[in-house]
Design brief:
By secondary structure, the protein is α+β, with helices and mostly antiparallel strands. It has one domain. The chain is built from one helix and five strands. Strands 4-3-2-1-5 form a five-stranded antiparallel beta sheet, with helices on one face. Helix content is 21%, strand content 36%.
Length: 108
C-alpha cells in the first residue's frame, strides 16, 4: 500500500490508473492492472479489454472495494481506451497504451 507521499494518491477526488500487463493474440485483447486511488485508500482491479470496445473489471481485493460510482468511472475509462484501440491500430500505432491516468475532482 502506498505511503502518504505517493504521487498517485490525490488529496481530494480520485485518480484512475490503468497499466498494461498483457496483450492477446493479434492485439485483439488486452489485460490491465487497474487502480482507483482515493485520499485514504486504493482499490485494485484486473481490467480486460477487447479491440471491439468491450471492457470488464474484476476486483483483486474485494474486502477493500470502493463505491460503485468510482468503479463505474474506471469502467468508462477502460471502455474509452478499448474503443480507441481500433483507431490507433489503423493509424499504425500500438493499439493498447502502456498507461492511462485520469483524475476526477470531488463531486465530478
Amino acid at each position: 500500500m502506498p505511503g502518504p507521499r505517493d504521487p498517485l494518491r490525490p488529496g481530494s477526488g480520485a485518480r484512475f490508473f490503468l497499466e498494461l500487463e498483457a496483450r492477446g493474440d493479434f492485439d485483439a485483447t488486452a489485460r490491465y492492472r487497474g487502480v482507483i486511488f482515493e485520499p485514504a485508500r486504493q482499490t485494485e482491479y484486473r481490467v480486460t479489454m477487447t479491440i471491439e470496445g468491450e471492457a470488464s473489471l474484476t476486483p483483486v481485493d474485494a474486502p477493500t472495494r470502493t463505491g460503485a460510482e468510482l468503479e463505474d468511472m474506471l469502467l468508462m475509462i477502460a471502455r474509452l481506451t478499448a474503443r480507441g484501440a481500433h483507431k490507433r491500430r489503423q493509424d499504425a500505432m500500438p493499439p493498447w497504451p502502456e498507461r492511462v491516468l485520469r483524475w476526477r475532482g470531488p463531486g465530478r
